[in-house]
Amino acid sequence: MTGLPRTLARARTPQGELALRERVADDGATVHELIVNGAFAMDSAEVASELALGDTLAQAAGPDGRVLLGGLGLGFTADRLLRHGVGELVIAELAEPLVAWAHAGITDRLGRVAADPRVRLIAGDIAEELTAGGPGFGAIGLDVDNGPDFLIHEPNAALYGAPLLRAAYQRLVPGGLLAIWSERASPALAERLAALGRADTVIVPVHRDGHAIDYAIHRVRRAAGHPAE
Ligand SMILES: C[S@@+](CC[C@H](N)C(=O)[O-])C[C@H]1O[C@@H](n2cnc3c(N)ncnc32)[C@H](O)[C@@H]1O
């Protein structure tokens, strides 16, 4: 990596400090970094798994489908979903400043996502959307932490527990898909999803800073013909 990161914006949130930084990589590319509560949440240098999450959600929702996404981050998954042609995308993002920065177009991608007429960008906890009533979603994606075994926000532990997973499952239309990003496969999460329906785990192998990493996307599909409860 060349050059020190430059802070584009920072803000205090109830969950700690949020910062969006920019640096120039060895190949001259501009890289954005999101730092949440002092922890590295993600950067734009390697986003294969964020894009894979968008692909699997879009495929499940189908053309013009409705998708609920937890965690805006740098907007890669959301942007991918929009490029696939989803009809409606509801995004819940816990960090209110990030929502404001997206509306202000702090990066081209975040600005594009926030301005898309198919997007409803909510500053709030995805847990509230999962438990709210309303029409079902063709796909629901969660990418809010480094995974169930490496939480950035401790309260997010509940998102990976059986009651909220069941709530998420019940917000799916029949045949809909719940997909959860994790920095490594979590057998305990896979087991909880398998208790709900047809579950599997997709491994996305990547190379980062000279290391091979197997990111995981845990999925469960709601049975077709299984009406919303
Ligand atoms: C790793 S980033 C998401 C990356 C995103 N998939 C992308 O493509 O850029 C995680 C995001 O989830 C947000 N977040 C954390 N906990 C949340 C929660 N309970 N509800 C909604 N958003 C949350 C964080 O503020 C952060 O913006």
Automatic annotation (TrEMBL):
Checking InterPro entries in the record gives: SAM-dependent_MTases_sf (IPR029063)
For this entry, the protein name equals Spermidine synthase
According to its UniProt entry, this protein's organism is Naumannella cuiyingiana
